[in-house]
Specification:
The complex is a heterodimer.
Chain A: E1 14-25, E2 28-39, E3 43-47, H1 54-61, E4 69-74, E5 89-92, H2 104-114, H3 120-130, H4 146-158, E6 164-168, H5 176-189, E7 194-198, H6 202-208, E8 211-216, E9 219-225, H7 231-242
Parallel strand pairs in A: 3-7, 3-8, 5-6, 6-7
Antiparallel strand pairs in A: 1-2, 1-4, 8-9
Chain B: H1 3-21, H2 23-43, H3 47-73, H4 75-78, H5 82-87, H6 94-123, H7 131-156, H8 162-189, H9 194-222
């Protein structure tokens, strides 16, 4: 099943394009010919069961991993030939990417400075406030709870104001109020930033995205604009693709 | 952002983490002092023997102590996949190697500053008269040790047997550094003419240049998934 329905008219500039990507780990084929494009300002939610290849796909899109074959383009350019393009990417991974021995503020300052932000201090302070950690910026990250670490990890991904956000299950570990605040943050960025989000929550994914894709066994089993259906429809399609009852 | 500014930031982070925990420096210093004391008890050298034995004691102690620091240096980056995060930054991954090399070098030099006077007292060998030449040889040898060690530390960090793997990989390749270091140090302490010391120093310089450049160039592939 494959249906691509653009949710907006006109010609989109492709912010991120992965073309016929395959990735093998020894005998295991994690991705088998994945092609996806995300336009500038568009939000794409990728659903899929564990082991479907979502994280591998995001790692390849972020340039952290080389594909076995296929091509990744950021705004039409190959990032492996132009490393400066990595500045356009902000990533939230399964790991926090934070140093537990540094304070929250020091972690953000370190990140902002390495991305070359001219106003690193102001950006770091602003991001701490945006994720509700302004009062804890001076504490070591090792003293943070799981949810606070995840919020700081999100702030870390956004501190250099990236054009493309790659979010690998960013809601993991967030309580309701933190999840709501993060959703609000993402909603505020919709349209101005390109967002690729993987999540197990179809409701959250549909609410945040212009387009959805379902990845099963390393293959895009379904792709559609949100106009193609509501949450229930996507849930039903997901169940069909994955092969479990809705 | 300039390469120098990137390396400075990476170094700042490593030094700050080390100042807070003192994990690496404490372990290296205590270990180096213990080995020096054990050597002294094992050999109980006479003043004549001490001059002959001290260079070997010094360089073997430094080689062992450096593996402690080197094996820990990338563990800091592994816990929350921070090495992966560093690879996302828009600069040459070789600069990550440069930053780590410098922080490892500073740790080893700090140990040397403490170890050298301790060894001089333990072995009863006056070093002050040769301190300039000795410092130059130690610096060159230390650069060689950490240039190779930093690379192998990055290679072995994701293996379960990294503490075993690092010295097994490091010592054979670092053998020219240790041999040249011992010979040059012996020549300096014995007051031999520079012509006798120079070949060892040249080898150290060549080793440093080769492995710093190779490390910088291949680091990207070493840390790639």
């Amino acid at each position: 099943m494959r249906a691509y329905i653009p949710s907006r008219g006109g010609v989109w500039v492709q912010a991120l394009a992965v073309r016929d990507i395959t990735k093998s780990f020894g005998p295991v084929r994690a991705l088998r010919g994945v092609t996806l494009t995300v336009a500038r300002g568009e939000a794409l939610a990728i659903f899929g069961p564990n082991g479907a290849g979502k994280t591998t796909l995001l790692k390849i899109a972020s340039t952290l991993m080389r594909p076995s074959s296929g091509q990744v383009l950021l705004f039409g350019a190959d990032p492996s030939q132009a490393p400066h393009l990595r500045r356009l990417i902000g990533m939230v991974s399964h790991h926090s990417y934070l140093y537990p021995g540094l304070t929250g503020l020091e972690n953000l300052l370190f990140t902002a400075r390495l991305y070359g932000c001219s106003d690193a201090e102001a950006r770091a302070e602003a991001m701490l406030a945006a994720v509700g950690l302004a009062g804890r910026g001076g504490d070591l990250v090792r003293t943070y709870s799981r949810g606070m670490t995840q919020r700081l990890s999100i702030a870390r991904a956004l501190v250099h104001d990236p054009q493309i956000l790659l979010l690998d299950e960013p809601y993991t570990g967030l309580d309701r109020s933190s999840a709501a605040a993060f959703t609000e943050l993402l909603m505020a960025m919709r349209g101005s930033r390109t967002i690729v989000l993987t999540t197990h929550s179809i409701e959250q994914g549909v609410a945040l995205s212009d387009r959805v894709a379902i990845l099963v066994d390393g293959v895009v089993a379904y792709e559609a604009g949100n106009g193609a259906g509501d949450v229930r429809t996507i849930e039903r399609v997901y169940a069909e693709c994955v092969g479990v009852p809705a | 952002m300039s390469a120098l500014a990137v390396v400075r930031q990476l170094l700042w982070k490593d030094l700050l983490l080390e100042l807070r925990t003192r994990e690496i420096l404490t372990a290296m210093t205590v270990f180096a002092m213990l080995v020096a004391v054990v050597f002294n008890f094992a050999f109980s050298p006479s003043p004549q023997d001490a001059l002959r034995l001290l260079p070997g004691m010094l360089w073997v102690t430094l080689a062992f102590a450096s593996t402690l620091g080197l094996s820990r240096s990338f563990v800091l980056e592994r816990d929350q996949q921070c090495l992966e995060a560093l690879r996302l930054f828009p600069f040459d991954p070789g600069l990550i190697y440069a930053g780590k090399l410098l922080s490892n070098l500073l740790a080893l030099l700090a140990v040397e500053i403490l170890l050298l006077p301790a060894l001089a007292v333990i072995a009863g060998v006056p070093l002050l008269g040769h301190i300039g030449a000795l410092a130059a040889v130690l610096l060159l040898g230390s650069v060689g040790l950490v240039a190779v060690g930093t690379l192998f530390s990055a290679m072995s960090v994701n293996t379960r047997i990294r503490e075993v793997l690092l010295p097994v990989l490091l010592f054979p390749l670092a053998a020219p550094v240790l041999i040249s270091g011992v010979r040059s140090t012996l020549g300096i302490l014995a007051g031999r003419p520079w012509a006798d010391v120079l070949p060892g120093v040249r080898l150290l310089v060549a080793f440093d240049v080769i492995f710093v450049v190779v490390g910088y160039l291949i680091f990207e592939y070493v840390v790639e998934e």
